[in-house]
Design goal:
The protein has 124 residues and is α+β, with helices and mostly antiparallel strands. It contains two helices and five strands, in the order αβββαββ.
Length: 124
């Protein structure tokens, strides 16, 4: 029993296909790392600002939790500053739980990095 031309084709293509898939996965990881480092660096080079703001909306994003995997929840709050501009900042769950929509206060942030919110009232 000999090899057919299809067998020759598969033995030639499969190693190339395997390498391409491996390269795409590694390339994806490298892209994510570079993007994260770029955002971290941009935040470090941004000024630290403290401005009056209002909590407009809150949201969460939950991933995982199926089968044997644990769930991971990311917390976001949208703040509106006096100029009317809005920004959504990611924060930890314990800080997220302390804020309510409509809260007024002083927001401290650096780039896209949330640093704190000192509540001083609520909008009427």
């Amino acid at each position: 029993m000999g090899f057919s031309p299809f067998d020759d084709f598969m033995f030639g293509v499969m190693p190339i296909l395997g390498f391409l898939i491996f390269a795409l996965v590694i390339g994806g990881f490298i892209f994510i790392i570079i993007k994260g480092f770029g955002q971290w660096s941009a935040n470090n080079n941004s000024p630290r600002l403290t401005v009056p703001a209002q909590v407009k909306t809150k949201r969460t994003n939950t991933r995982g939790g199926g089968g044997d995997s644990s769930a991971r929840t990311t917390y976001y709050v949208t703040f509106q500053v006096e100029s009317g501009d809005r920004m959504e900042l990611q924060m930890y769950g314990n800080e997220y739980g302390m804020l309510a929509e409509g809260d007024l206060g002083i927001l401290t942030f650096q780039g896209t990095r949330y640093l704190g919110f000192e509540r001083n009232g609520t909008a009427e």
